[in-house]
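Supplementary Methods, section 5.1.

A reviewer requested that the exact input to the structure prediction be made available. We therefore reproduce it here, unchanged from the version used in the analyses.
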Amino acid sequence: MSSYKYHCICPKCGHSYSAPALTKRQFQLWEFMKKIQLKTGEPPSTREMANHMDITHKAVFGHLEAMETKGVVEHIPHQGKGPPTKCWRALI
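The structure derived from this sequence is encoded cell-by-cell as follows.
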C-alpha cells in the first residue's frame, strides 16, 4: 500500500505545513472533505462521504478514525436536533 505525504497551504492564513502520510483512499476522502467544506462552509455527512467514495458507512468511519489519529480531521460534537451522530471536519 502506498502512502501520500502532502504539503499544504492554508487558504485562510497562507501558513504552509506538512501532514502525516495518508493512504491513497484516506487522501481521496480528505480531498473530498476539503472541497465540500470550502464550497459550502460545512463538512460533508458520513453518508455523502460513503456515496462519493463508493464504500460502506463503516469503512468511512474506519478511515476517519485513522485520519483523526494522524491529525488531519477532527470529530465535531453533535449539535443537531436529531439523534446524536458523529460529525467530522477536515483540518485545512
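The chain has one domain: 24-90. These observations are discussed further in the main text.
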